[in-house]
Amino acid sequence: MPARSAAWVLVAAVSAACGALAWNLGVTLEDRSIVEPDFLWRPNETLVEQRFLVMAVAWAVIAVACVLFARLRRIGALPEPQVTVPVLLIGVVIGGSYSVITAPTIGANIGGGIVLMFGPFVLLGLVFVAVRAARAARGPHSSTT
Fold first, then answer.
1. How many C-beta atoms lie closer than 10 Å to residue 104's C-beta?
2. First vs last Cα of the chain: how many Å apart?
């Protein structure tokens, strides 16, 4: 696998790990003492029960990616930050959105509605920014080849 492709696989893995950490933060902070939870969407209980394992795996993925990014930086195969930051934010938005939608109180009330109304537009905006930055980083001559 070429180094540039490996870098993008790492970016995708770190984006998923960031999403898992954003979800995990929401699950860890939610109030578990609610007697009658009001869910917009019931969470996957296996994930909730194993949230610390999910967090440990996400941190391990990020640690391994940092080591590999250092190696890729030495050979000049890192993707552009203007592209990677929106991709990482896509993971954070997805993880945070899932956390809000599956929350026992705010998920069924205001938070879930806000996520459903504006979440897709935020994601499309981040995809647009990432694609536009990738095309700009590729340069004007690459579109003719």
1. 18
2. 22
Q: Are 108 and 40 in contact (CB under 8 A)?
A: yes
Q: Are 69 and 21 in contact (CB under 8 A)?
A: no
Locus of tokens 């993880």: 95
**37 and 105 in contact (C-beta within 8 Å)?**
yes
Nearest residue to 42 via CA among 95, 96, 103, 93: 103
Q: Residue 133 above 80 pLDDT?
A: yes
Q: What is the pLDDT of residue 145?
A: 46
* pTM of the predicted model as reported, rounded to 2 decimal places: 0.84
What single-letter amino acid sits at 114?
I
